[in-house]
Model the fold of this input.
Amino acid sequence: MKNKSLNLKKLIYALFILGMVSLVGCKREELGMQEASGIKRFFAENQTKSEFFVVNAGVKSSVIGKNGTIIKLEANSLLHQNGTPVTGNVTIELKEVFTKADMVKSQLQTKYKNSLLISQGQFYINAIQNGESLKIKPSKKIEVFVPNFDNAPHTSVFRGDSIPNDSTSDPIDSFINWSFEDSSWIYPSYIDSSMDSSVDSSTYVFKLEINGFGWVNLQSFFESSDLTNITMETPGLDLNDCGIFVVFDDYNALYQPFISDGFFNSYYLPIGAQVTIVALGFKDGQYYLDLREITISPYENYILDLQPRSVQEINQALENL
Done:
């Protein structure tokens, strides 16, 4: 009876911690929504939400996201920022961005310098204790298994940093800049429940080891030497209250054009590619949308026709990309 009572107390405590973590995460996202206005509020409210998991830092553990990403932590693998070992419960934050809709709503373009990238999955990982972001012990690494939804033959690892958007003065406005982590290929591996109890069914995954938290993108280069630039206009709408994306029909890839000289500009696009220009806008309390299917042609200018749409209609349209 005593052991049962002790286990019940542990369960209640774990549920309490998880609830507090979720509350903190929700409050942080709500704060971002309150700070955002115009079209940025749409992205703040509709971007991919984080999941939170509570684990014991002193015990080997694993968590699995709703889209199948598995994170495995060795015991005693985390440090505080001052270098001291972490003990007790910690919170693992995971955000998975796998679909074109999620990439648009999270404003995650697949671009490295001037090269288009095809994504096999983007995710964000962090470890937190008492509001402090933790780090991984140098002698340890964290294993991550990412589902190979597109049956890609191989991929490479890119790391992401949040960079302010120089085309606007809004401090909330930023984008993820990808850097090449490792030039070596990662090939898919087969995994099933007999090999790993955290897996419900057999699947092919990309297995990688990370030594730092933050954004990670599994991507491969789109090979094309026949490139061009295009421009886009949004008549009647403030350019700073618009979000424009060039979404590739046949690949999990997108560009987010930048503002220059009164136009949205997108450089180094492969000529002949089938894409959809996704244009979101906001004016006088109303959201606007245009989806323009085009074939990339040299140096074209597209005048977009954004029409009033509800948030529900926009989300449904994005899910159909």
